[in-house]
Amino acid sequence: MKSGKFWAWVVFIVGAAYFFIPLMATVEFSLRMRRGVHSFDAYQIVLGDARFQSTFLYSVVAAIFTIILGVLIVVPAAYWIRLRLPQLRPIVEFITLLPLVIPAIVIVFGYIRMYGSNSPLPFLGSNMGANALLVIGYATLALPYMYRAVDTGLRTIDVRTLTEAAQILGAGWGTIIGRVILPNVLIAVLSGAFLTFAIVIGEFTMASLLNRPAFGPYLQNIGANRAYEPAALAIIAFAITWGCMSLIQILSRFAPKSSNRPN
Amino acid sequence: MTDLTLSNRTIASKPAPPNEATAFRLPTQWIGVAPFFIFALMFLILPTIYLVIGAFQNSDGQLTFDNILQLVSDPSISSSYWVSIKISFWSAIIGAFAGLAIAIAIVRGGLPSWTRSATLTFSGVASNFAGLPLAFAFLATLGRVGIVTTLLRDVLNINIYAMGFNFLTTSGLIAVYLFFQIPLMVVIIVPAIDGLKKEWGEAAATLGATQAQYWRMVVIPVIWPSFLGTVILLFANAFGAIATAYAFAGPALNIVPIKLYSQINGDVLHNPQLGYAIAFGMIVITGLANVFYIWFRTRSERWLK
């Protein structure tokens, strides 16, 4: 046991070094813009750049629409499958796994060829259409995470009893989903939402191929042309990812504990 | 998967018990799932089928296998597939073993409990920290003027670039991909190790098993399926990744996703149909990988329930 503990420490420390050295080095590098002293110049330049602000805002808005679209698609489906159509569960789970099988670049390639300006559904014929297609593409990327989060949330509440109680009180389907089910799985939905945000905010492939002014293509452009700003952007991106993940962890503390798990 | 459908068939062949869903109510049954299925069909399944069909057509729409054959016969395309497979395979294998070692260390190694929560939190972040920012971080660390590069050169007098180090080599990209592969492994495999029941260890000890026997005959057989499954997930994860590699070298790097990216942007291969074939090849490879993943996962869930 003594030697086991020793090796556990070795593994832990080597692992920690592998992950912390690049992060520390990136922080250090991002502070080196002014010769000889540490300064926040790189951050100031990045944050003051009008293109940073506009592309970042664009991606935040895209992420918000992605989350709304994802919730509208996933919550009714996951609820309905728990309530009425459990036999469809394997099919739906299979479909939600597909975005992990089909790489993002392949999905967006299909969009470009299927929804081009000469097609029956010309999403790419207009600016708004292309924005919509980007949000749709992001929603597909987020589908596996959103579905799993919502389904886990639904598992902890008694869907059937809640629905019947609401029906007895005279609620319609809109009221049941919007005012009974959704508030009960809100924490699960929010953790799915933050994960979606973390995935979408710096996404490069889809935004670039659909030619959208998003944060990902901006990052690529800065990375190809500047020296110190990319390091600052990497730290900012890491902080955003960290923020999203901590919010998920904090939220999970408020999640209801499982009510009807078998054990 | 095959087991599931078989058992469903035997159930389906039995007369269905009478239930509340009578024939005239059937259409309303589908309303709740309709948006999901319409969305999946329009924006996931049909675009993919469109590409797959295109892979078997020439520019006049006739059936042909030329595009697929060209994947193999064109050395620049087949080598890009080969490089991609190599990078994905090794980053998955190394990432899986390193991740497993870290997971075992924090769950079973007798370390203080903060190491476990710190590692899990960090892994959650790092497994999602990919793409362009990851490339920037490594360039700031090990790029030509990176911090670690200059430190090694000035303090220890080691010039890693003179020693042949380069991000654009297979091993360079593998080292970078490990930064998200290892944490992903940790995130997925820790629950599997947690699922090892204490009673199994006690039962093995009661029966006189040594620690080594316990690992060889109990732990490894139980963890094996979810370990293999995760390796495959890591493989698919690396195979479709494009942004990190693109940040290092732009369109110059010869891996499949970047090849496809350049082809979509500018038809660099001078045959629009060839793009479909490359996409089809990617789906086949990640699809095969995931078939194995699902198969292994259903096997492991049987044990860990």
From TrEMBL, chain B:
Give the way it sits in the membrane. Multi-pass membrane protein
Q: Matching InterPro entries, A to Z?
A: MetI-like (IPR000515), MetI-like_sf (IPR035906)
Q: What PANTHER family is this protein classified in?
A: INNER MEMBRANE ABC TRANSPORTER PERMEASE PROTEIN YDCU-RELATED, INNER MEMBRANE ABC TRANSPORTER PERMEASE PROTEIN YDCU-RELATED-RELATED
Q: Which UniProt keywords apply?
A: Cell membrane, Membrane, Transmembrane, Transmembrane helix, Transport
Keyword hit for Transmembrane: yes
Q: Where are the transmembrane segments?
A: 30-53, 87-111, 131-152, 164-193, 213-236, 243-262, 274-296
Q: Where does it live in the cell?
A: Cell membrane
SUPFAM superfamilies (UniProt xref): MetI-like
- Which Pfam family, just one, is annotated for this protein? BPD_transp_1
Please give the chief subcellular localization of this protein: membrane
Protein known as: ABC transporter permease subunit
Please indicate if the UniProt record lists Mitochondrion as a keyword.
no
Q: Name one GO biological process term.
A: transmembrane transport
State the CDD domains in the record: TM_PBP2
The family line of this record is: Belongs to the binding-protein-dependent transport system permease family. CysTW subfamily.
Q: Recall the taxonomic lineage recorded for the source organism.
A: Bacteria, Pseudomonadati, Pseudomonadota, Alphaproteobacteria, Hyphomicrobiales
Q: Name one GO cellular component term.
A: plasma membrane
Superkingdom assignment: Bacteria
PROSITE patterns in alphabetical order: ABC_TM1
